[in-house]
Amino acid sequence: MQNKILIAFVAVATMLTLMPANAQAATMAETMKGKILLQVEANGEAWYVNPVNSKRYYLGRPDDAFSIMRSLGLGAKHSFITAYTIFPARVSGRILIDVDDSGKAYYINPTDRKAHYLGRPADAFDVMRKLGKGISNSNLAKIADSAASGTLWNAWDAYVTAANNKDFDALQNLSSTPLDLAKDCYTMTATVCKDTYMQFAKEALNDNPKIEQATATVYESARQGIIVSPLLKEVNANDVTGKQQMAYFAKDNSDTWKLIRTIFASSVLSKDGTKTDDQLKADLDAKYLDTDQDGLSDAIETGTDLSENSKTNKDLRDTDGDGWWDGMEFRGDTDPLIATSKIY
Ligand SMILES: [Ca+2]
Ligand SMILES: [Ca+2]
Ligand SMILES: [Ca+2]
Predict the structure, then answer these.
(1) CB–CB of 320/340 below 8 Å?
(2) How far, in Å, from the CA of 253 to the mean position of ligand 2?
(3) Ligand nearest to the CA of 334
(4) What pLDDT, in 10s, does the model give residues 134-190?
(5) CA distance 257 to 39
(6) Residue-wise burial string across 207-238, b where 16 or more C-beta atoms lie within 10 A, e elsewhere
(7) SS3 26
């Protein structure tokens, strides 16, 4: 335990740096477009990769699979559906709904571009099992999950689930950039590094003030979002402490929320006899004040914080005017003072 330090600031970063992997992920999603995938390393869960947006849709039970596949269908004339044995490439992997014949649905298998009738839920399920291709968890993680791209809170929930399950692949899929094991873990093996990393992510969640929809403050625009827990203030015998958790998310070029970083900040104000507990609590509020709501306190932006100085403008959300808020850039790996340095 550290003590007697007037102000101790600990920022624990559970997230990474920026760049590649997106290219790799894009390739996997491209390759799998229109295919039905079976998660062979789990319980054979089935997914459909929608060729329209290259995102995967969980097919679940037979009834679910049937309705999901139909909901992603493309209306087609009966004459079009009966005109081909091998369908044109533009409908490869699509589900065609016969608008002239009571909405009968057909799946165009991308492997041979032949139509498979999806009559009742059981038919859809059979097609899924017969045509589904096995995929590893790590490759599946490279394809964006349609459910994960919903709201900012979906993204936070995905993070919590990944951390609690110590699911490294899920966390990698959610993160804006992959963890660079070689760079971040030095002499550890990849397996030990991943385990340590996930252990850390889980503990950080349990130790911190909770981020919950009911009590959190959210700063959100079309492409970025920051979730801030309430500032937890505790009065102890010799000090007053403050703790806050924050999570920074950005939408990637496929419009999917990705995690930039989570931060746990804590401060200890020692009681020196000159201030009351309430005054020390007020000092904590002041220390965490974020006037321009960009995810960085005024103290960090102006350099009065002892440990961090972003050198950004405390009254301007986006100091360099590149569209990304100061906190997003400072907590990510781009420069908040250089407009050409951008998150996406
Ligand atoms: Ca600020
Ligand atoms: Ca600012
Ligand atoms: Ca900026």
Answers:
(1) no
(2) 24
(3) 3
(4) 999 889 988 888 775 568 988 998 899 999 989 998 999 899 987 777 777 777 888
(5) 23
(6) ebbebeeeebeebeeebbbbbbbebebeeeee
(7) helix
